[in-house]
């Protein structure tokens, strides 16, 4: 049998039908209303390549050096060509088409999805299971099945398997063919409360196909129902758009919801009852709360997908406050957002602010409270004495301190502001930190047990925190209920160190609004010139590709905005080779950002080559962002260099940071030069508008990103960009402040990028403001 019907499949058939097929089969077998369909089994793919005798050639073709991008591209082309050009044996063709006829009398629109079977691959999506075709009819069915098979051999899939050490011949692929449901209404349902596990169902619903809800294109109605007495809270949203099938082409299209249905409640009481019955059955079947995608057509409820809810705490209690996040290896939480070093502390467990005397204070730059022994780090050798759970006390952190920062339970610096290296990296690592104390290294003693309160910016004497339960930094940042507020304004996340990518992605953010490339380079501990001199250009480009790829993989297909190199020369001077860097009087106003890249196009070409290779590898979610531009001339010159490097500016998304008043005032010209987006770098925009050094603790109280002058610049840029259809976003630290988020949403910004620990609050703030705007518009 080349195909298995969904009702013949159960969860144990992974090897034969892949993850997707097994899950749909299990639901069908449980009598749940899954749209009918069948799976072209993994064995069928295998016999296809073996009987046609293309298997050996196929596996030989992909056995290449994947770091050689030309060889990789050729390998992918050859492998796909072999599959796509090999005809179906007659018998197989007949069996698939006959099965299709049984699904919908030969007229059905079906979804064709690949379902890879290499269960033990860390991320099976890279095995090739990305390929999905919707609204497929008979004529295209066989080709689509073959295309799913060929998707095992995209450049990305080959590269990934090779890197992970997986044998290409050990991965098989099944294809699910399932009737499409022309949903009149659809949505998602959590069978229990997604953060507490309470007996509360949450249903989100909108008109048309479910993609509009899942992708966030529409704010859905929200129904919160008590499972015991079925009492219900309903919030009706204004649903402006819906997705549906275009009758002429069969394609999914977005269209406006008719005026009279926009504020109409989507699901009736009877339908809620039917959904709840379904939810209870699914939860009973799996024995754990589920996150279900559903659809309703002609009054019948269908179930499209179900998976366990991953955000419920093991003990059913609320997920810890994100502000208390800390690496489990480094510390313990008291469950109230405060953390305790793994060694050397005790507390009353009730008040994380403690009763010890304040020894030093500064800017609370990464939240959480932690106790532990202080380790004074003056020179690099001192880093060796930093053990798990210690609190690093230093003048200012540098990139080569990152490994020690990961071990530490807290960080305190003399220097720096909220946008300094210590502040940025500690937030991403989820390690509480205080910066700009001016005197921590001279006031605190090595080995002295202290409590660091990263919210209030105070260092107290003694240990104030009780060990309680371990927490997982990745789990802590996952969105709570509703799992992810659907917002029209995208909420993204900032990433500086690739190691933080998993934690960043777990926030449910809509992508990365800023990936700072310089952190990857600074961690090489050599200037680019030195690294290239010792290791060659290709090694340098590979470092960039690898660093970016780690983040782009984690978020794929969500967009990742990668900023080209922007490190002031004083940071480069700390690295090996730094002696050759110019000694600048004022590095913040000096040789950095796009001005340096344009001055040295030969060096910039390496970064552009890295982007080109990433695009070639299929990372179409990577976007290019240019730092410290001043005007359209900077944009035109860069665009030429992109073209010379083989990057098509029309095909790729790229844009500029707005970090100087000049850039803010010149944005119209930049829009005309072709940028897709403008992103406010408020750290620099503030320092250059107010003449306040962002890293100078003596003027930190004057560093006000909400200053009316800055808000005026921002507001004008948003207005101009909207007129020119250019997206706007913020990726400076201020995007994490609710007041700024409120201002920006009211002004009509397209996206906000926040720090990992702030994403959840910003999502909720954005949702609140958007709902208020909607309400105001109808009042
Ligand atoms: C900014 O200036 O706001 C910004 C995001 O860039 P950086 O902090 O890296 O200068
Ligand atoms: Mg900047």
Description:
- The chain has 779 residues and is an alpha/beta fold.
- Helix content is 36%, strand content 20%.
- It contains 28 helices and 31 strands.
- The strands form 6 sheets. It has an 8-stranded mixed beta sheet. Strands 24-25-26-27-28-29-30-31 form an 8-stranded parallel barrel, surrounded by 4 helices.
- Helix 22 links the parallel strand 27 and strand 28.
- About 8% of the residues have low confidence.
- The structure holds phosphoenolpyruvate and magnesium ion.
Defining traits:
779 residues, globular, binds phosphoenolpyruvate, binds magnesium ion
Helix and strand arrangement:
Layout: E1 3-5, H1 14-29, E2 37-40, H2 42-51, H3 55-61, H4 69-85, H5 90-104, E3 110-116, E4 132-136, H6 138-150, H7 155-164, E5 173-179, E6 185-190, E7 200-207, H8 211-214, E8 221-226, E9 232-235, E10 241-245, E11 252-256, H9 259-262, H10 269-286, E12 290-297, E13 300-308, E14 331-333, E15 339-341, E16 358-361, E17 363-366, E18 369-377, E19 391-394, H11 402-407, E20 410-413, H12 421-429, E21 433-435, H13 440-443, E22 449-453, E23 458-461, H14 473-476, E24 490-495, H15 501-506, E25 512-516, H16 517-522, H17 528-535, H18 537-555, E26 560-563, H19 569-573, H20 593-599, H21 601-616, E27 622-626, H22 632-644, E28 654-658, H23 661-665, H24 667-672, E29 677-680, H25 682-690, H26 708-723, E30 727-730, H27 738-747, E31 751-754, H28 759-778
Parallel strand pairs: 18-19, 19-20, 20-21, 24-25, 24-31, 25-26, 26-27, 27-28, 28-29, 29-30, 30-31
Antiparallel strand pairs: 1-2, 2-5, 3-4, 3-5, 6-7, 6-12, 7-8, 8-9, 10-11, 12-13, 14-15, 16-23, 17-21, 18-22, 22-23
Helix pairs in contact: 3-4, 4-6, 17-18, 18-21, 27-28
The chain binds phosphoenolpyruvate and magnesium ion.
């Amino acid at each position: 049998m080349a195909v298995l019907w969904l009702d013949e499949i159960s969860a144990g058939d992974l090897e034969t039908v892949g993850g997707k097929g097994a899950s749909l089969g299990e639901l069908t077998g449980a009598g749940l209303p899954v749209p009918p369909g069948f799976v072209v089994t993994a064995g069928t793919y295998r016999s296809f390549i073996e009987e046609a005798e293309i298997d050996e050639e196929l596996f030989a073709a992909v056995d290449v050096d994947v770091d050689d991008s030309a060889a990789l591209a050729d390998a992918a082309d050859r492998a796909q060509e072999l599959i796509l050009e090999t005809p179906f044996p007659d018998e197989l063709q007949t069996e698939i088409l006959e099965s299709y006829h049984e699904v919908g009398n030969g007229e059905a629109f079906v979804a064709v999805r690949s379902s890879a079977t290499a269960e033990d691959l860390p991320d099976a999506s890279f095995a090739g299971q990305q390929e999905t075709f919707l609204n497929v009819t008979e004529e295209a069915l066989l080709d689509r099945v073959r295309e799913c098979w060929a998707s095992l051999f995209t450049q990305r899939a080959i590269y990934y398997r090779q890197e992970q050490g997986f044998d290409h011949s050990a991965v098989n692929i099944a294809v699910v063919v399932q009737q499409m449901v022309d949903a009149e209404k659809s949505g998602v349902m959590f069978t229990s409360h997604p953060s507490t596990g309470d007996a509360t169902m949450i249903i989100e619903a909108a008109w048309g196909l479910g993609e509009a809800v899942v992708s966030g294109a529409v704010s859905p109605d929200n129904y919160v129902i008590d499972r015991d007495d079925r009492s219900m809270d309903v919030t009706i949203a204004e649903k402006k758009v819906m997705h549906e099938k275009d009758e002429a082409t069969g394609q999914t299209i977005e269209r406006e919801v008719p005026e009279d249905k926009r504020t109409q409640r989507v699901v009736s009481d009877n339908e809620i009852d039917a959904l709840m019955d379904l939810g209870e059955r699914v939860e009973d079947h799996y024995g754990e709360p589920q996150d279900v995608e559903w659809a309703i057509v002609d009054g019948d409820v269908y179930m499209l997908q179900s998976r366990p809810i991953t955000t419920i705490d093991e003990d059913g209690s609320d997920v810890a406050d994100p502000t208390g996040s800390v690496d489990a290896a480094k510390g313990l939480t008291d469950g109230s957002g405060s953390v305790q070093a793994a060694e050397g502390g005790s507390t009353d467990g009730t008040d994380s602010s403690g009763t010890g005397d304040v020894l030093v204070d500064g800017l609370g730059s990464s939240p959480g409270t932690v106790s532990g022994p202080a380790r004074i780090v003056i020179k690099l050798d001192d880093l060796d004495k930093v053990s798990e759970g210690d609190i690093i006390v230093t003048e200012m952190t540098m990139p080569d301190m990152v490994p020690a920062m990961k071990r530490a339970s807290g960080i305190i610096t003399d220097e720096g502001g909220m946008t300094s290296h210590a502040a940025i990296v500690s937030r991403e690592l989820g390690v509480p930190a205080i910066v700009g104390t001016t005197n921590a290294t001279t006031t605190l003693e090595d080995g002295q047990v202290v409590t660091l309160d990263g919210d209030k910016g105070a260092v107290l004497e003694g240990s104030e925190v009780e060990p309680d339960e371990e927490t997982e930094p990745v789990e802590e940042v996952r969105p709570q209920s509703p799992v992810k507020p659907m917002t029209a304004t995208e909420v993204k996340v900032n990433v500086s160190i690739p190691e933080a990518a998993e934690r960043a992605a777990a926030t449910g953010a809509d992508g990365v609004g800023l990936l700072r490339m310089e952190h990857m380079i600074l961690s090489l501990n050599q200037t680019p010139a030195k690294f290239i001199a010792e290791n060659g250009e290709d090694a340098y480009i590979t470092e960039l590709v690898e660093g970016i790829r780690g983040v782009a993989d984690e978020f794929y297909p969500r967009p990742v905005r990668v900023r080209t190199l922007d490190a002031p020369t004083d940071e480069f001077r700390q690295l090996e080779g730094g002696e050759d860097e110019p000694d600048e009087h004022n590095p913040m106003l000096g040789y950095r950002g796009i001005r340096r890249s344009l001055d040295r196009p030969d060096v910039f070409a390496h970064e552009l080559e890295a982007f080109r290779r990433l695009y070639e590898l299929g990372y179409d979610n990577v976007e290019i962002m240019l730092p410290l531009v001043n005007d359209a001339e900077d944009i035109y010159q860069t665009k030429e260099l992109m073209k010379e490097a083989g990057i098509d500016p029309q095909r790729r998304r790229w844009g500029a940071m707005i970090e100087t008043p000049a850039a803010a005032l010149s944005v119209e010209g930049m829009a005309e030069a072709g940028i897709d987006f403008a992103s406010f770098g408020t750290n620099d925009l503030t320092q250059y508008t107010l003449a306040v050094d962002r890293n100078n603790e003596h003027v930190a109280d004057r560093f006000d990103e909400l200053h009316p002058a800055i808000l005026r610049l921002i507001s004008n840029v948003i207005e101009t960009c909207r007129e020119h259809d250019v997206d706007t976003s913020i990726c400076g630290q201020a995007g994490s402040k609710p007041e700024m988020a409120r201002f920006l949403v009211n002004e009509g910004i397209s996206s906000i990028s926040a720090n990992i620990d702030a994403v959840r609050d910003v999502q909720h703030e954005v949702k609140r403001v958007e709902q208020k705007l909607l309400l105001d518009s109808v009042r």
